[in-house]
Amino acid sequence: MSKRPIIIDTDPGIDDALAIAIALFSEELDVKLITTVAGNVGIDLVTHNALRLLKYFEREDIPVAKGAGSPLIREFEDASNVHGKTGMEGFDFEEPTQTVIKENAVDAMRNTILNSDEKITLVPIGPLTNIALLLKTYPEVKENIEEIVLMGGSASRGNKGVMSEFNIASDPEAAYMVFHSGVKLTMVGLDVGLNALVLPEDSEAIKDMNKTGKMAYCLFKKYRGGSFNTGLKMYDSSAIAYLLRPDMFEVQETYIDVELAGSMTAGCTLVDLRGYLGKENNATACLGIDADAFRKWFVESIKKCI
Ligand code: BDR
Ligand code: CA
After folding, report:
1. Beta bridge partners of 232
2. Ligand 1: which atom is nearest the Cα of residue 11?
3. Cβ 189 under 6 angstroms from ligand 1
4. What is the pTM of this model?
5. Is there a contact between 54 and 60 (Cβ–Cβ < 8 Å)?
């Protein structure tokens, strides 16, 4: 079976780190490129973190391209309260030998997509700035994109604002452009992320499994996406889970829009499950996940890592 080619656009980020690990060691995915975007922490830190991860996973053959350092219009606000000031606090990584490639994230994505014989799946697990710029600057790539499976948004409440999720609220204009791009899109949002939990017994199980498990355990002790004792939220891994195990998800085809004007709700995703807006469906919304199956899948996936 040929592996599914993907590009991960990311802002590592502790939960990003685990998503990247699982993707890299999956027999079904072929990570062609990693692009970085300012999000959990600033662009230099997230880019350094992506490189540190590839060094740790012994996959410095995968190109890393540096992306946008700020949202399209709004001011940058990080999430270092969740991931620590470096974005991956809690583990002592070796310095990478690899450096970023000379193309920026948008050009690197364009080249990778246009040069691929097979359609590429984009997996954005940070703010959507790079993806919006790509689709706007190089609309010709759309034909060779299989789909976009993104972590972000919510059909209910938020984790950055009352109603808005961090990745979408960080750059609502970019998200708006992506949801209106016409590219096949799946939203794996908080409805899933809040239930894609790792419990203490799972952390204990992976701790001595391999070097990825060891790293994860140390990062988990510092991660503030949930609590180590009652459940850590593996938001970004849930997007990878959707690629590999869609059977674990409850989904609905629907219309999704992004609020831009709301003085208190900008960056909120309107998941129009009942068709109030009378628009054609433009996305698949993931509305739930089998929490036990996810935990099992997560531990099994870490087992496949080095
Ligand atoms: C998203 O925000 C970030 O902090 C996480 O890495 C994840 O991508 C969850 O809202
Ligand atoms: Ca992320």
Report:
1. 198, 226
2. 6
3. no
4. 0.98
5. yes
